[in-house]
Amino acid sequence: MPDLSQIEQQMADIISQLHEYNYQYYVLDAPTVPDSHYDRLMRELKDLEQQYPQLKQSDSPSQKVGGEALKSFSQVTHQIPMLSLDNVFDDKEWQGFISRIRDRLGVAGALAFCCEPKLDGLAVSLRYENGILVQAATRGDGAVGENITENVRTINSIPLRLRGDDIPAVFEVRGEVFMPKASFEALNEQAIKKGEKTFANPRNAAAGSLRQLDSKITAKRNLAFYAYGVGFVENGDDWLPASHYQRLMRLKELGLPVCPEIRAVDAAEDCVAFYQDILSRRDQLSYEIDGVVLKVDSIAQQQQLGFVARAPRWATAYKFPAQEELTRLTDVEFQV
Ligand code: NAD
User: Fold this and answer.
1) Residue 124 contacts residue 135 (beta carbons within 8 Å)
2) Are 130 and 212 in contact (CB under 8 A)?
3) pLDDT digit string (tens) for 38-74?
4) Strand partners, 121
5) Is the ipTM of this complex over 0.90?
């Protein structure tokens, strides 16, 4: 018989560590441990919560998205929440994901997927009204984000006006702002020369650059953007295609940049080949990725599958094995 009070204490210790890491990562943009360490702790917590559901806390980090919006920015309430993604780390977990989807949909045959690189930047929501960019927000805690419109307006690849005439009066696009590897290296070199603090990785550099109170600083940071989804659309999103991949192609027609590596596949089995291919080319890509995102392609099936607390059921991140992560961190204890 396990000692429940001991397990409760173990869970409380993990939770307080995760709270601290979330604060460093999401609020300060300065992590002190590699993502693989964070992911292991989170997995440990989720396993304990599954084994001992009576000990699960309602404010557990396993149920929450991101971090809180900084008070220095005005706040934006998302009309449709910005969620996170669940993760799989190996083939066994991927097979588990697929069989859960098959069970829920009652589909035994082929399942079409949209396969995308998992860009290592930060999620933003762009709001276009009558085709004009009027607001940009960070994900924040998923419900409330930071208003970063002025900073986003400095990113060259984000159109201030969409192409085309039949765009709904309100149209929200979701995607990732990231810092290309070359810009990240140059930024850190410059910081070293000036004796300033360097960023731990391109994700934190992108987040730190976007969450500046002075947009002139953001303008100098050479950030980029790829769209990967749609948020709120006035009068519903029926004017968009019924396939996620085709929707991304429509976003491209509207003038929004979409990652050139994305692929539509007819069968779930092909997702693994995509994962292997992108993993083998990871170092040649001009931007940092930490896995791939595999999404059920049919919007009708996505709607049927729905969401859990912090993530959609119709998508998962298939994360790459941990690399020589964050070797720049001073805390060598955590180097892998
Ligand atoms: P996540 O990064 O695992 O996945 C969700 C995010 O993926 C989305 O919000 C979006 O920004 C991004 N994304 C990239 N490409 C995408 C695509 N093609 N389609 C859809 N989304 C895409 O989740 P998260 O909640 O942002 O962060 C959790 C992860 O962050 C952890 O698993 C851990 O690796 C890391 N983390 C690390 C620390 C640390 O201290 N090192 C602390 C907190 C979080």
Assistant:
1) no
2) no
3) 999 999 999 999 999 999 988 899 998 988 888 889 9
4) none
5) yes
pLDDT digits (tens, 9 = 90+) for 93-135: 999 999 999 999 999 989 999 999 999 999 999 999 999 999 9
Q: Is 207 helix (H, G, I), strand (E, B) or coil?
A: helix
**Closest C-alpha to 288, from 182, 139, 186, 155:** 182
Gap between the Cα atoms of 291 and 65, Å rounded: 19
β-strand 315-319 against 87-88: which pairing, if any? parallel
C-alpha 193/C-alpha 123 separation (Å) is: 30
Probe target for ligand 1 pocket from 15, 42, 85, 139, with the most ligand atoms within 8 Å of CB: 85
Q: Ligand 1 pocket: which residues have CB below 6 Å?
A: 21-22, 24-25, 31, 33-35, 38-39, 65-66, 84-85, 116, 118-119, 122-123, 139, 176, 228, 293, 317
**Out of 56, 92, 118, 252, which one is annotated catalytic?**
118
244 is in an annotated binding site: no
Going from the N-terminus, what domains does the chain have, and what CATH number goes with each? Answer: 1-64 (1.10.287.610), 65-334 (3.30.470.30)
320 burial class (0-12, 13-18, 19+ CB within 10 angstroms)?
middle
* Full DSSP string of 242-281: SBHHHHHHHHHHTT----TT-EEESSTTHHHHHHHHHHHH
* 39 among annotated binding-site residues: yes
The distance of Cα 131 from the centroid of its chain, to the nearest Å, equals 25
How many Å is the Cα radius of gyration of the chain? 20
Which of 62, 87, 293, 316 best tests ligand 1's pocket when mutated (most atoms within 8 Å of CB)? Answer: 293
